[in-house]
Fold this protein.
Amino acid sequence: MIDAHEANLPLNQGELEKKTTAEVSEATTETQTSVLEATCTNPSEAANEGAVETQAPIEEPTTDTVSEEDTTAPEPTSELEEAVTRPAVSLSKEEVLEKLREYAQDAENASRQDIDGLKQAFYKLHNTEVETARQAFVEGGGAEEEFVPAEDPVEVEFKRLMNIVRDRRSKQSADLERRKEENLRIKLSIIEEIKDLVESGEDTNKSYAEFKRLQQQWNETNPVPQGKVNELWKNYQLYVEKFYDLLKLNHEFREYDFKKNLEVKTHICETAEKLAADEDIVSAFHQLQKLHQEYRDAGPVAKELRNDLWARFKTASTIINRRHQQHFEVLKAAEQHNLDQKTVICEIVEAIEYDKLKTFAAWDTKTQEVIALQNKWKTIGFAPHKMNVKIFERFRHACDDFFKQKATFFKTLKDDMNENLAKKKALCEQAEALKDSTDWKTTSEELSKLQKEWKTIGPVARRHSDAVWKRFITACDYFFSQKNKASSSTRGIEIENLKRKKSVIERLSAIDEKADVDEANKLVHELINEWNGIGHVPFRDKDKLNKQYNSLLDRLFASLHINSSAKKANNFRSGNGSGQDSGQPLYRERERLVRAYESMKNELQTYENNLGFLSSSSKKGSSLMDEVNLKVEKLKADLNALKEKIKTIDNSMKEEKVEEGNE
């Protein structure tokens, strides 16, 4: 479209109105397209941080439809913005406090992200200290619900500085809102003045100078309320275009204005292209927002250059926007990876099997594992903002549950240990009552039982463990020390007894089995009595010596009893005939022998029954068994001899009957 001034043709009122209507429509369409394509900052950031309003450039083309994806920068989520501005986790609480003091001195220029980052870093350190103190309190035997963290003077100072920063920023925000309202009033006034210039038809030179002054005032008046930005800019753009197109502006002024605007916008394009290669893409993105504002504030260029110039600026903007989006996608992936790691740690702590933790060592090992997981947690970065607090609460709940279970275990264990201490003190009293006893054997057995019982009693508190054990073992050691002293004096006697018992064994071995039975029996009984009268021998020789002794007795008893039975039977046979010469009836002798046989048989039965109640575990029991065995063997031999006598009488009586029949 060629305006009347450029064609050097006058316009009548009808043509002027027709032209005005058409260009208003065109300007409005261009403005709407520009608003859709413009790259905007986050409205909440603009309101809170005083960012410049987002406005469309004057001359975006209407003939080329541009994708919103190409030109509109993605609005970074709050958690990603925070990830960029978070302070280093290596700062201590004092360093965070010092940094906050600096911000408090210049709160108006400190960014909200920096302040929030310091607050998050401080309370992460503070909560870690509180958690450590709480764990120490619980491990020391205190109840978790009774724990009250001590007042932290550093936290008090931190809150005071935060209140200062908050008050100053609130005041700054209120001042900013008042300034925005004032700027809105001024800009509405500027639009009205431009409208008056357009409609007044005054001298061109005077109108142009006033117009440039109003343009400069417009550009210097920022910011305005965010909700009024687009509507305000549309009205301003409308009357600026009308001023350029409807006034009879000197062609040289117009060309000069287009040239200056071209230089400004070309410089903006070059700056945007350099930003596309900037390594700090977040900074580049924010600088791009300012460039868009500058591009809009600059005046129009020649119509044939508008499309190409805008395409150049849009291309650079698209590169920055895509890099910015990719940057935050990488941050999102990293935060998701951190969330996965933290989820695994939560699952490990939640999967602890408390019913298997029954000892100090088991709880101590598991506690070290949980502390190691807590330290690992601290090395992992932030999770996505919407999950960061939730996953931390989950982990803290799992850790709290672990230490609560541990406190319950130790509380129960404390009661058990008190009971165990009472039992061990009772054993100490019993041991101390026995330590002066001289009944070495019985007391040794009693102390051995006490020591075995001690082992069955569970642990006691560490502060009592050494003392009660020392008390018990001192009493036991004292008794056994006295016993060893008493035993050392009897060692020589035992060696002498060993020699005497060996002598008895040698004399038993020398008894001839063919010797006279009565003499041999008499000698054996004498040696048995001598053996029984000898005292203890060394313990290591006792079993071997008793085995030799018992073996010899068994052999002698068997041999002597057989010989005794045979001797008695022969004597009876040889004396049987003399019994008849004396006139003694055989049947009376037989009845006497039968009665004696039955009596011996009953006596033998009694001895055999008694053997079942005797024990050979002691020296006395062994000697008694030997004597009973000797009597049993003797009775068996006597029974056999009686049988032979009865049999001999029966044979004699048969022979007499045969002789009487022959006569």
DSSP finds 20 helices and no strands in the chain. The chain has a mean pLDDT of 75. The CA atoms of residues 327 and 503 lie 106 Å apart. The first helix runs from residue 13 to 37.
